[in-house]
Amino acid sequence: MILLLWIISFTFPGSIYSGDRIFYYDARSMASGGASVVNANGVNPAVFPENRFRVNFIYNPVFTSEKRGLRVYDSYGNNMGISTIDENVTSTDQYCGSLAIMPLNSFYLGCRFVPAWNFSYNYRHESRDDFYQLQSIEEITNQGAIDDLEPMIGLAIGRISIGVSYIIQYGNIHYRYSLITNSGADSIMESSTSYQGSTGRAGIYFKSKIGLDLGYVYTYRSSLSANNSGADLNYPTTQVIGFAYQPANRLPTRLAVELAYEKWVQPLFVYKLGIEHHVTEQQALRYGFCLLPDYNEKSIWTTVFCIGYGMKRDRFMVDIAYSYAKRDYSSYSLNLALPENLYFSESTNNIILSVSYYF
To answer: How many domains, the chain?
Structure first.
């Protein structure tokens, strides 16, 4: 039982601490590995608005699968396979009208709404005796997210844009625990905690004549207070620098690279890479890659592979993207006097659809 409780707390640490990072903004940024500092839709409040009012909407179903188990060895030390302890799937849907930009000559006004940290998580464990008779069912469910509502203002002159934003952070996290057993009284515990806080963000975006775009975003740290006796949620100061390059009038392919520095207790870096290839002037294929270290233990990594498609017409754009994420524990040294044959496998399948309309 102690081993099982440890496995529960070890996997998906985001649902226990400050949430799991949502590494993308919309379908275009996801397909590009999350790189968005030098994209039209992204975390950078510095943008180059077109001369039309634009609204962007997102639909985002997420499917997460995890396995917990033990590696099984024979008497000669050969790996015979995996004895699965648990296998769970978490499914969530996120709907949000994500972005509106209104140009006012060289100035522009905008507002963005997007989930930033995900707390959705499901765990179910069935205990059985030596005769495979069900003894108990234990379930843990977390639901919720921390959302960002971000009004922004900026100035775009020539090849440079500067923008600032004020971020209102809020969310509600619902927790439910149930234990159904045939050897004692059943138990159910539920709690709901609301959080609220704010922070600020500033960015700059530069477009050169040679097809090289540069972007930089600074986000100040924040602390979200709980409406009850629960612990506050704390998020770090973040600095993101990125560049994109597409040879002018030569190749229909754009390369974007992004590096983020997050000042947690243990500072860490997040790496993002994206490629956008225009098949025609109205259609694009995108490929991306992202490396996300865990903010509690830097030796635990999540690797994300992404692919997407975009289509643009006169008044609207449609983008769709898919990502597969795998969390890796192989480089993590347990050092907890626990069996070395512990096995963890966590993967996430993510689909996102973005639609932009120009008035």
So the answer is: 1
